[in-house]
UniProtKB/TrEMBL annotation:
GO cellular component terms attached to this protein's record: nucleus
The keyword Transcription appears for this protein: yes
Domain C2H2-type: from-to ranges: 11-38, 39-66, 67-95, 99-126, 127-154, 155-183, 184-211, 212-239, 240-268, 271-298, 299-323
Cross-referenced PANTHER family: GASTRULA ZINC FINGER PROTEIN XLCGF49.1-LIKE-RELATED, ZINC FINGER PROTEIN 200
Highest taxon above the source species: Eukaryota
Keyword Lipid biosynthesis: no
Chief place where the protein resides: nucleus
Organism: Orchesella cincta (Springtail)
PROSITE patterns named among the record's database cross-references: ZINC_FINGER_C2H2_1 (PS00028), ZINC_FINGER_C2H2_2 (PS50157)
GO molecular function per UniProt: zinc ion binding
Keyword terms, alphabetized: Metal-binding, Nucleus, Repeat, Transcription, Transcription regulation, Zinc, Zinc-finger
Pfam families in the cross-refs: zf-C2H2, zf-C2H2_4, zf-met
Name of the featured protein: Putative zinc finger protein
Amino acid sequence: MGDHERISNFYQCVLCNKLLKSSTSLQYHLRAHLGERPFPCSFCGKSFINQGDQFNHIRRHIKEKPYCCSMCSSVFSCSGSLNVHLREVHGPTKRPRKTECPICKKLFLSKGALNVHLRVHTGEKPFSCSVCGSAFSQKAGLERHSLLHSGKRSFKCLQCTKTFYRSDSLKKHVLGVHAKERRHSCDFCGKTFLTDFTCKTHMLIHLNELPWKCEICGRRFRQQGTWQSHMDMHKNVKKHKCAHCTKSFTTSSGLREHYLRMHATPNERPYTCLFCEKKLVNLKYLDEHIRNHTNEHPYFCHICFKECKISKTLIYHMKTHNN
């Protein structure tokens, strides 16, 4: 398996020895190590490891909630939130069976979701535009269409200054204009990159080359910069100093996170908590903060099933198993 060993029916990551069930899961897992998030949100710029997480996030912006609880009237933007609701509100023993589409046999968690899906087969479009009469099968489609009449260009390209009325127009722009700029291609998998450096760094994954070794713990790295940051953590070298207080940090990312959480100005905090009206700098921090009110724990350990509110807590917890 190249730089990753296949053990029985599992794929093992050589960086942390975690076992994954499929090559796709291994690919997503590797992106977490490398910091690759190739799927950005066109609304706020937040990026994601896979397209499924990107779609779930975008639904929050357009207020689309296709996952319906079959035991009450609650609706959710992603299946994970529905599962948490089913477990905490209705109990694990009362979880409903999946409902099958009689036409294509696709399974759905609720009758409400099935009814929305059936419109694909029946051609039903109950949501119509009051301005031009265009009809849509889902309310979210009508809301996106209404942006054309409002004159508001909500979809911004993160690689240039262009803005668009619709997400599909933005997608066509990115694929037609910026995708052609990615001229550096990986010799192994064909993936393309904007620069020769990022392409060669990616190719090290296939070659299993980790030239930079930590003499303290033995961990190896593909890039000198990553290795140096790791060594600074061992030596507790905190050369990144905060200009607003006396704190200092081993990495620039740690300093940046500290600034956003502690010193960001009101203009840098556009997101407001609906529970306590606290203002946050981005959707990630808002999501983490809201979990203090809802007590939601979306991250769990696959070894002992401990639940965590934020991913960083889970990462620290997993190290206790590695030790």
